[in-house]
Amino acid sequence: MKRKSWVFCGLFFTLITTGCNNATEQVASEPAAAASKPMGGQSSVKDDESQKDVVKVAIGSPDHTTLVKAVQAAGLVDVLSNAGPFTVFAPVNAGFDKLPAGTLDNLLKPENKADLENILQYHVYVGVIKTDYMNDGQVLGQANGDNITISVKDGKVMVNGKASILASIPASNGLIHVVDEVLLPPAKK
């Protein structure tokens, strides 16, 4: 009886170690196979059923084509497609038209990508804040490290005393506040 149990233990041990070695070989070969496939960021995930993220909402808006072009030029599509949560102050096309002539074209040049990123990140608050919870004089720290100031008068919410919030649109990873002006960060000293 003892001999049978030793034989069984030996056979069991052989099966386990052989199975583990094969599993290790399989796991080791999977990263190499995955590395050879091109990988996209969060924006490359195909999902036609879930609520749209802030980027997909903007892409679907005819009033935000300039913003989408700027986000793409700055390379921020994947960042803003991630889980968030984000509150995005999204200027409409007419808001970009208010910039001095040539400003947008200049910002869209590859050599000015860092400046464009800074401006776009100034439009993003990490977290979700609805207009119902905004207070007059409230200061919000933006993704670029600078602050914006909220003002509320007679139910009208403005950003930095200039940009009016026209509408608020929920997204799967946050909230979009449609604004009528481009927010420009304070000049660095």
TrEMBL record:
It comes from the Bacteria. Keywords: Signal. Gene3D superfamilies: FAS1 domain. Residues 51-183 form the FAS1 domain. The keyword Acetylation does not apply. SMART domains: FAS1. Pfam families: Fasciclin (PF02469). Residues 1-23 form the signal peptide. The keyword Signal applies. Transmembrane segments: none annotated. InterPro entries: Adhesion/Biosynth-related (IPR050904), FAS1_dom_sf (IPR036378), FAS1_domain (IPR000782). This is Fasciclin. It comes from Flavihumibacter stibioxidans.
